[in-house]
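hey so u asked for the seq, here:
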Amino acid sequence: MSGARFIFRCLLLFAVMLTRGICAEEEPGVARPAKSPDGKFVVRADEKEEVAGFARKTGRKVLAMPEMMVRQESLRTVWAKDSQHVALNYQAGTRYFPTSLYAWNGSKFVELPSPEDALTKVLVKEKARQMKEAKLPADAYERRIHDSFVTRRWLDAKTVEVDANSIRTVTERGEGEKETVDVEADFRCTIRYVAKTKQWRVLKALPKTEKKE
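ran it, structure tokens below
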């Protein structure tokens, strides 16, 4: 990736992050309400402007927000068609946007294991390939620019489509002039939860864009 293309990419990511926080919000700093398909649940802010998931009929809190979430207005909710599963996309740091997945257990939504480990393996493999192509050593310093894991949709109760993206500026270690290369891994992945192992398995990982100079 050329320097100009990399700068453009970073500016674009910044614009996306900014838009997530200000577009179409009913109130500044508060996540937009998101009802489940069956209408029984809603993710919204309460009277104290604290976001949570509630049973609409009783008002009982049934879904707690991720502790890592740093901006409520960054929250985006993705319900499964069965209304028994839900994903939360949110901001957890300046350069970090994770996703958390939940399942209904009869009384509340409980968090499933994170899919990040499985998805990160896909991203790391691609970044390593690019570093090898650039003839950089495997232990070169990697400066974190951006990491995001965004659930797009539930395909069924155990299968999810997620966009996974990671950008690093890689610098060769050592004295004197150092070579710097920008590497990016950007995939649309289909993952499936395996209850027996309590882990996510990547079924499909497709590059989202063709890298062109």
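Helices lie at 3-22, 116-133. Residues 16-29 have pLDDT under 50 and may be disordered.
lmk if thats what u needed
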